[in-house]
Design a protein that fits this description.
The protein has 4 helices and 5 strands. The chain is of the alpha+beta class and about 110 residues long. Strand 3 and strand 4 form a beta hairpin.
């Protein structure tokens, strides 16, 4: 798989110029097409799935596209719980007392157990 290494170990940290960063970007994804200038394509076209590895100041933060030390499953569950709480309270803050279903009806029928 072809890669491009961005930042070329040059410091882009204005607060601490001694910190260096490097990212390995996948070049053979549909997101990166058409590929003429890899850096411009990365900035304008790339998505998170195109980032394979990120190293900052010698510490690997992303490996094989996954943020190390970040529990995606737990964070997804926490985000969903927070969203459910917000949706449950919509009618309290709507001047007409409308629910989330009144304001934004689901496009699929709810699963009934």
């Amino acid at each position: 798989m072809p890669y491009v290494s961005t930042l070329k170990e040059a410091s882009h940290n204005r607060k601490d110029p001694s910190v260096y960063a490097r990212a390995l970007i996948k070049l053979d994804s549909f997101n990166m097409c058409p590929l003429r200038d890899p850096i411009r394509s990365f900035v304008q076209l790339a998505e998170s799935s195109d980032v394979d590895m990120v190293i900052v100041d010698g510490k690997t933060l992303v490996e094989e596209g996954r943020v190390l030390g970040f529990d995606e499953e737990k964070n997804f569950e926490d985000l969903q719980k927070s969203m459910n709480k917000i949706c449950d309270r919509i009618s309290e803050n709507d001047r007409l007392g409308r629910t989330i279903e009144d304001l934004m009806a689901s496009t699929i029928k709810k699963w009934e157990e």
